Amino acid sequence: MNEETLNLSVRKFLKTVGVASQREIETAVREALAAGRLGGGATLEAKMTLTVEPLGLTKVIEGRIQLE
Buried b / exposed e across 2-40, counting CB within 10 Å, b at 16+? Predict the structure, then answer.
């Protein structure tokens, strides 16, 4: 195994996940605000599940997203 290749590959994957996740969350928030399902000062509980099946890895990461 090449440590540098692994590191760069993981970072590339995480960057893709981060950008795609941010886009999805921002779109969903805007839609919920427009539909009146969400107030502008809300704090959203968020949960992300990371799964790498060949490694038997499942990790749940929880956090909060504040709108103001």
Answer: eeeeeeeeeeeeeeeeeeeeeeeeeeebeeeeeeeebee
